[in-house]
Amino acid sequence: MKADLSGVNWFKSSHSGGQTDCVEVAWLAGGGVGVRDSKNSTGPALVFTPGEWDAFAAGVRVGQFDRPA
Fold first, then answer.
1. pTM score, whole prediction
2. Does residue 14 lie within any of the structural domains?
3. pLDDT tens, position by position, 34-54
4. From residue 15, how far is each of 5, 23, 24, 30, 37 by CA, in Å?
5. How far apart are CA 41 and CA 30, in angstroms?
6. Among residues 43, 41, 40, 46, which one has the least CA distance to residue 3?
7. Would 12 be classed as within a structural domain?
């Protein structure tokens, strides 16, 4: 998915505690989601479709991406 990311509002998780080493997310027009590295705000960003983001978020909620014990 290609998107114009100029002028979007990027935000960090409230769990980041204001750290600079974070991932930032932006809700895009049309339902897409942008993701970028907060240390490189002018660098590349990933853009996900609404379905891709929903599948990822659902996986996070059920622990699909937890580190192995």
1. 0.80
2. no
3. 999 988 888 899 999 999 999
4. 24, 11, 12, 27, 16
5. 22
6. 46
7. no
